[in-house]
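Translate sequence into structure tokens.
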Amino acid sequence: MSLSPRGIASSRGVTLLALALAALTIFLDQLSKWVILEHVMQPPQVIEVTGIFNLVLTFNSGVSFGLFGGESAWKPYLLSALALAVSLTLLIWLFRQPQWLFAVAVGLIVGGALGNVIDRLRYTAVVDFLDFHWNEWHWPAFNLADSAIFVGVALILLDGLFLGHQTANNSKS
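Result follows.
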């Protein structure tokens, strides 16, 4: 594999990297949720960790920031199917464009998406417990899977907006 962040590597190697990172993300996400559900939030409560961070227990039946929330028997399955379709699309894209930074991003996004799919199928909602706030303003609660998705998307943007231009310029020289 190339040492360059955008360097072309073997499809097999970067796919294995993405799958391993996805598996690790799913494991850590589900472990953190198990600890919260079975040990920390018995009974459910708000635990002030710092002046700007709490542990809470919420069940998000919508998507990011609670969008499309509300109860519906079909929604967990529709949102799960959408997450699976996006994950499969990203893996196909990775196979066609084998680069290690993109593999890390895809691994994080797929692992986060599948971690939340597991919640939707088990609880019909996603378990969220990280609550950052400033005074009375609270960012919507989230979890490790959401964080992995955010970092993965940020890496894709970084790669496409900044590092991709360097590779394109270097190949012209």
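Note: Strands lie at 47-48, 53-60, 126-134, 137-138.
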